[in-house]
C-alpha cells in the first residue's frame, strides 16, 4: 500500500469468545484479511466494554472473563476494505455472532516493512 490520503480503516468489534469451530473469530478475520491481500491487520484486546446486549465485560483481578472485547483494525484502499466487509459479514454468520463493524477515513502517511 502506498501513502494514501483517501484510505479507509475497517474496525471490527467482536467478543473474545466468538468462534468459528475451534478458532477465535478475530483470528479467522486476520487470516482471511491476509489471504485476500489486505495491507495488514491488528487485533487489540480491550480491558472493558459492552455492546448491543449492554452486558459489561471486564478484566478484573477477582473476575475471570472469557469474553473480553476484541477489536480488529485493517487499513487499506476503500475498494479492498468494502470488498472485505462482505467477507466479515459471512464470517459473522458462520460464528453466529453479533458485533459492530465501522469504516472510517484514514490517511496513510507511511507504510513500510521492517528491515
Would you give an account of this structure?
With 115 residues, this protein is of the alpha+beta class. Helices cover 25% and strands 37% of the residues. The chain is built from two helices and eight strands. It has a four-stranded antiparallel sheet with strand order 4-7-1-8, covered by helices on one side. A hairpin with a 2-residue loop joins strand 2 (19-20) and strand 3. Helix 1 (25-35) runs antiparallel to helix 2 (78-95). It is globular, with a radius of gyration of 15 Å. The mean pLDDT is 91.
What characteristics describe this protein?
115 residues, alpha+beta, 8 strands
Mean pLDDT: 91
The biggest sheet, with number of strands, parallel, antiparallel or mixed sense and barrel status, is: 4 strands, antiparallel
Uncertain parts = none
Beta-strand segment tally: 8
**Pairing-aware structural class of the strands and helices?**
alpha+beta
Distance separating the two termini: 17 Å
Rg, Cα atoms, Å: 15 Å
Q: How much of the polypeptide forms β-strand, as a percent range?
A: 35-45%
Number of helices: 2
Give the topology, please.
Blueprint: E1 4-15, E2 19-20, E3 23-24, H1 25-35, E4 41-45, E5 48-49, E6 57-58, E7 69-76, H2 78-95, E8 100-108
Antiparallel strand pairs: 1-7, 1-8, 2-3, 4-7, 5-6
Helix pairs in contact: 1-2
In short:
A hairpin with a 7-residue loop joins strand 5 (48-49) and strand 6.
Amino acid at each position: 500500500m502506498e501513502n494514501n490520503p483517501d484510505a479507509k480503516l475497517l474496525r471490527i468489534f467482536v467478543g473474545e469468545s466468538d468462534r468459528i469451530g475451534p478458532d477465535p473469530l478475530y483470528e479467522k478475520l486476520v487470516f482471511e484479511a491476509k489471504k485476500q491481500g489486505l495491507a495488514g491487520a491488528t487485533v487489540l484486546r480491550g480491558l472493558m466494554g459492552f455492546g448491543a446486549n449492554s452486558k459489561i465485560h471486564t478484566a478484573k483481578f477477582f473476575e475471570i472473563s472469557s469474553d473480553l472485547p476484541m477489536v480488529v483494525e485493517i487499513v487499506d484502499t476503500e475498494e479492498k476494505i468494502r470488498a472485505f466487509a462482505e467477507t466479515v459479514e459471512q464470517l459473522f454468520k458462520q460464528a453466529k455472532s453479533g458485533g459492530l463493524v465501522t469504516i472510517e477515513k484514514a490517511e496513510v502517511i507511511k507504510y513500510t516493512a521492517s528491515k
